[in-house]
Structure formats: C-alpha cells, structure tokens
TrEMBL record:
One of its GO terms (molecular function) is transmembrane transporter activity. GO terms for biological process: amino acid transport. Residues 70-258 form the ABC transmembrane type-1 domain. It is found in: Cell membrane. This is Glutamate transport system permease protein. GO terms for cellular component: ATP-binding cassette (ABC) transporter complex. Its main location: membrane. InterPro entries: AA_ABC_transptr_permease_3TM, ArtM/GltK/GlnP/TcyL/YhdX-like, MetI-like, MetI-like_sf. The keyword Oxidoreductase does not apply. It is a multi-pass membrane protein.
C-alpha cells in the first residue's frame, strides 16, 4: 500500500522505473562532481580560493551583517506561512463547497494565482498600487504577493489531502448527527492536514527561497544584504558562496524535517482497509482483499 501522503500525488514507480531512477541519480552525481571539480580548478587559477579573500568571513561584523538579513528572511517567511496557510485552507474548503458561486470563485482565484509569476505580483505591489495612493510598508510589499501565490498552492495541497480520505470518514460524521461544517472541521480536516504535513513543509522550503525576491522592494533579507556586502568588500564570489551555504543549511534542515514527518506519517497511518469490529451477535466484517 502506498503512503497516504503520496498516493494522491503520483503513481508509485515500479521496479524498472526505480532502477532507472537510481542509474540517473548516479550519473547526475558524477556529472555534478565533475562540474564542481572544474569550477574549483577555475577558481583556484584566478586566485578566488586565496586565504586573504576568505579571511574577512571569519570576523563577527560580517556575520552580524548577514544574520540581520537572515532574520528578515525568516520573518517574511513566517508571516507568509501563517497568512498563506490560513488563506489556503479557506480556499480549499471553498473549492470543495457545494455552493456553486463560492466554488467557482475559489477555483478561479487558485488557478489564476498559481500561474502568475511571483515577481509580477511584486511589481504590481511596487508600481501598481502606489499609483492609486496605496503605499504599503516594505515588508508587506513582499509578504502580500507571496501570501497570494503560496495560498493558492497550499489550497491545492489541502484539497488533495481531503479528497484522499475515504468517504467513510465523512459518512461516519453524518451518522453521528454532525453537519457538513462540523464534519469538515472535526473529522476530515485534521486528518487531511496530518497527511499532507510533509508536503506543506516542502512548500515552506519553496516559500523561503521566494523571499529572496525581496531585493526588488529593497527589503532587508539575506540576498539583498549579500548584494550590498559584495559591492562593499569587492568579494562577489566569496560572499554569494557563503550565502549559498546559509540557504543550504536552512532549507536542508526543513527538507530533513519533511522527510522525517513523511516517515512518521507512513508508520502511524492506519491502513485504509481495516477490519470493522463486529457488534455482539453479528458476523464479523472483514477488510476486502487486495
């Protein structure tokens, strides 16, 4: 049986496909290792690996300057995660609503903002709204476009999680006299969110990378600070390699968290086809055979 958090995203690969994936992974690693070795050779030939070019990054003022940008990145990502998550859940529920106008409106919102580039939305916030007298703070010029774009993606993740649950969960709630909203809030939605938690964490990694677009609105985030620092110390390659390492650590930690949550969800997920306890005096109902 496929893990519940991936069963609705793609088909489980077979033995031949898994073998091809392993071969492609090994070939890709060899190519990347060769490209990395060639890059290091070119850097060394041009003096980019000299100790005097890396020694400034051993001083605390440089790291203090970059950490201020990292704090801005994490702040923007946290605000977008909270607002985008709440809006995404509402959009998913609206798209699943039996009310046709609400369903059409939420579907249109999701489909439109899933296809628009985030950079275009940022430009609209930067140049479009001020023309009508609406000039938001710098943080919100970045947060609002990212919230709109990520809420559409989160809505589809949550909706997929809801649709992946067996119908028996909803019918059990109705049998207890619960209304549709009560069933969705107390029965369906908690299980769906738990199943798609790894996918939501992966979306958070993508969101964290999108905050690098904050340089467009001059928001103090990590990449913007790196640009200013490289213009000051004339160490372009070294500065951006250090910033790349910071992004790898942060996003790698989130990716590891997503993998851990995925394994935990797989281990603790109850099988879909479980035996139903029999009532006293009634024959036992067995799960259907695979």
């Amino acid at each position: 049986m496929r893990p519940p958090e991936t069963a609705y995203l793609y088909d489980e690969p077979g033995p031949r496909t898994r073998r091809r994936i392993r071969i492609a992974s090994v070939v890709s690693l060899v190519v990347l290792a060769g490209a990395l070795a060639l890059m290091l050779r070119q850097f060394a030939s041009r003096g980019q690996l000299d100790a005097d070019r890396w020694s400034p990054f051993l001083s605390w003022p440089i790291w203090e300057y970059l950490l201020v940008g990292l704090r801005g990145t994490l702040l923007a990502a946290a605000v977008v995660a909270v607002l985008g998550g709440a809006l995404g859940v509402l959009l998913a529920l609206g798209r699943l609503s039996p009310l046709r106008p609400l369903r059409w409106l939420c579907t249109a919102f999701i489909e439109v903002f899933r296809t628009l580039p985030v950079l275009l939305l940022i430009y609209l916030m930067l140049f479009g709204l001020p023309a009508y007298g609406i000039n938001l703070p710098v943080l919100w010029k970045l947060v609002v476009p990212l919230t709109v774009a990520n809420s559409a993606a989160i809505a589809e993740i949550v909706r997929a999680g809801v649709l992946s649950l067996p119908r028996g969960q909803t019918e059990a709630g109705y049998s207890l006299g619960m209304r549709r909203l009560q069933v969705m809030r107390a029965v369906v939605l908690p299980q769906a969110l738990r199943a798609v938690t790894p996918s939501l964490v992966v979306q958070l990694v993508s969101l964290l990378k999108d905050t690098s677009l904050g340089y467009v609105v001059a928001f103090t985030e990590l990449l913007y600070r790196a640009q200013v620092l490289s213009a000051y110390n004339r160490l372009l390659v070294q500065t951006f390699l250090v910033v790349t390492l910071v992004y790898l650590v942060v996003n790698g930690s989130l990716s590891a968290l997503a993998s851990r949550l995925k394994r935990r969800t797989t281990k603790t997920a109850a099988p879909v086809a479980a035996a139903v306890p029999a009532q006293p005096g009634a024959p036992a109902v067995e799960a259907p055979r695979a």
